[in-house]
Design a protein that fits this description.
By secondary structure, the chain is an alpha+beta fold. The chain is built from 15 helices and 13 strands. α7 runs antiparallel to α11, α11 packs across α13 and α13 crosses α15. Bound molecules: protoporphyrin IX containing FE.
Length: 424
C-alpha cells in the first residue's frame, strides 16, 4: 500500500488507511520495517473514509521506532492527548460520550485517573481474580463438548466482557448489549459491525448514547450505595470538590468497557493463532504453564499489539527525530510497529514465549496514560490459556484469522478452532 503523497517526493507506505491492515501480516511487517528505517520526513495523509462526514485534516506524523515512542510518551507537555486519540478529529458532540480521561492532559487527567485507580488496587484485583478463574471455567464448559468453536466469539471475547461488566456492576442480562455497542465503537470502519458505511458517525453516536443510557440506569441504582464496584465509586466520587458530571461518568464508563473489552479479546485471539503457528513455543508453555506464563503473556501482547496506535498533538514547534513539527500537528504512535523494532527486539517477528527483557509498548509508553488495566489484562490472558491447556489441551486454530478493518485496533473478528471434545 504505497501512496505518493501530495507535495512530497515520498513513496513510503502509509499505515493510516484501514485496508493497510487487511493484508497478510508478512506484507504489513515489510512495510512497517520500511517506515522504521526511513526518517520522519512528512505528514501522512489522513485519508478520511467516506461516511465519516469530516473535513480532510493536514495529516499526521507516523512514528514507528521504539525509542521515538518512549521519548514522546515521556513528554506529555509537548505531545498532548487532549485534542483526540485517533487520527481523525471527532466532532464536538462526541465529547459527551468519548471525552474521557484518555483524551485529557494533566492535571485534570491525573485527578480523574486517581478516582478510577481506586478500582484497580491489588485488593480489588485479587477479588476479581477468583471471578476470572470461575468465568474462564464456565466459558470452556460451554464449548467443551462441541469439539469446535469460533474462538473469538465463543471464548476470547467472553472473558473480558464479563469481567469488565462485573467491575462496573452491569448485570449479566446486558452483556450482549454491551458487546454489540463496543463492537460498533471500535469496529466502526468494519462492515460487519456498521453495514451502512455512509453514516458511521451516527452509528458511533448511537452506540455511545445507548451505553451512556445503560450507565445511567446502573448509576442511578448506585447513588449513596456501598457496593464494591467501580460505578458506585464513580457516582459517589468528588473531583475538585465536585461530583463528577453526567458526561464525565458516561465517558468513564464507555472508556472502561471499550478499553477493557476490545483489547484483551484480541490478545487472547491472536494468542491462539501464534500458539498454533508455533507448536514448539506452545509445547514450552504447556510444559510449565505457570512458570512460562509471565513471559508468554508479555510476548502475546507484544506481537498482537491490540492497540495499533494512539495519537498525540504537538503543543509547540519542535524538532523531533529529524522532523520539524509544528504546534497543532498530529503524531500517531504506532505501538505495533515499535513492538517489532529490530533495534530493541532480537528477531522481532518470532513468537518467543521465553523472550527476556521484553520492553514492549503494547500497553502504551512510559507516561501518564500507561494502561490502567494492564495487570487485569495480563491476568485474564494467563487464566484463559491455563484453563484451555488444562481442559482442551489440543485446541488449535483451524483457519485464517478474520481481521478487523481498522487501523486503530489490531483486531480479529473470527477464528475457527477445534479440539478433542471433553466433558463440561
Ligand atoms: C491486552 C489488553 C490491553 C491492551 C493491549 C491495552 C492497551 C492500552 C494502551 C496502549 C493504552 C495507552 C493509551 C495511550 O497511549 O494514550 C491504554 C490505556 C488505558 N487502558 Fe488499556 N489495554 C488493555 C486492557 C485494558 C483493560 C482490561 C482495561 C480496564 C478494564 C484497560 C483500561 C485502560 C484505561 C482506563 C486506559 C487509559 C489510561 C489513561 O488515560 O490514564 N485496558 N490501554
Amino acid at each position: 500500500m504505497t501512496t505518493t503523497l501530495p507535495g512530497t517526493a515520498s513513496e513510503l507506505p502509509t499505515p493510516i488507511p484501514s485496508d493497510f491492515w487487511l493484508r497478510p501480516m508478512a506484507e504489513i511487517d515489510a512495510d512497517l520495517k520500511i517506515l522504521r528505517d526511513a526518517p520522519l520526513s512528512h505528514l501522512h495523509e489522513e485519508l478520511i473514509p467516506e461516511g465519516y462526514g469530516l473535513e480532510q485534516g493536514a495529516g499526521a506524523w507516523v512514528v514507528t521506532r521504539h525509542q521515538d515512542i518512549l521519548d514522546i510518551s515521556k513528554n506529555p507537555e509537548v505531545f498532548s492527548s487532549a485534542q483526540g486519540i485517533t487520527i481523525l478529529d471527532s466532532p464536538p458532540e462526541f465529547n459527551e460520550f468519548f471525552g474521557s480521561m484518555i483524551a485529557l492532559d494533566d492535571p485534570r487527567h491525573a485527578r480523574l485517573r486517581k478516582v478510577v485507580s481506586a478500582g484497580f488496587t491489588p485488593r480489588m484485583l485479587s477479588q476479581l481474580e477468583e471471578g476470572v478463574q470461575v468465568q474462564a471455567a464456565l466459558i470452556v464448559d460451554e464449548i467443551a463438548e462441541r469439539g469446535e468453536c469460533d474462538f473469538i466469539v465463543d471464548v476470547a471475547a467472553r472473558l473480558p466482557l464479563k469481567i469488565v461488566c462485573d467491575l462496573m456492576g452491569i448485570p449479566d442480562s446486558q452483556l450482549d448489549f454491551v458487546f454489540d455497542r463496543t463492537n460498533v465503537i471500535l469496529g466502526a470502519g468494519d462492515p460487519e459491525y456498521v453495514p451502512d458505511a455512509t453514516d458511521i458517525l451516527t452509528a458511533l453516536l448511537t452506540a455511545g448514547g445507548e451505553l451512556a443510557g445503560l450507565m445511567n440506569e446502573v448509576a442511578e441504582s448506585k447513588v449513596d450505595g456501598t457496593a464494591d464496584d467501580l460505578t458506585t465509586m464513580l457516582v459517589n466520587a468528588e473531583v475538585d470538590g465536585e461530583k463528577l458530571s453526567y458526561a464525565d461518568i458516561a465517558s468513564f464508563f464507555i472508556l472502561l468497557v471499550v478499553a477493557g473489552n476490545e483489547t484483551t479479546r484480541n490478545a487472547i485471539g491472536w494468542g491462539l493463532r501464534y500458539l498454533t503457528e508455533n507448536p514448539d513455543q506452545r509445547a514450552l508453555w504447556q510444559a510449565d504453564v505457570e512458570g512460562v506464563g509471565v513471559t508468554a503473556v508479555e510476548e502475546i501482547v507484544r506481537l498482537a499489539s491490540p492497540v495499533t496506535y494512539m495519537r498525540r498533538t504537538v503543543t509547540e514547534d519542535i524538532s523531533f527525530g529529524g522532523a520539524e513539527m509544528e504546534a497543532g500537528d498530529k503524531v500517531a504512535l504506532f505501538y505495533l510497529a515499535a513492538n517489532r523494532d529490530e533495534r530493541v527486539f532480537d528477531d522481532p517477528l518470532r513468537f518467543d514465549v521465553l523472550r527476556e527483557n521484553n520492553r514492549h509498548v503494547g500497553f502504551g509508553g512510559p507516561g501518564p496514560h500507561f494502561c490502567l488495566g494492564a495487570h487485569l489484562a495480563r491476568r485474564e490472558i494467563l487464566v484463559m490459556f491455563r484453563e484451555l491447556f488444562d481442559r482442551l489441551p489440543d485446541i488449535v486454530a483451524t483457519g485464517p484469522a478474520e481481521p478487523l478493518r481498522s487501523s486503530f485496533i489490531h483486531g480479529v473478528k473470527h477464528l475457527p478452532a477445534s479440539f478433542t471434545p471433553a466433558r463440561a
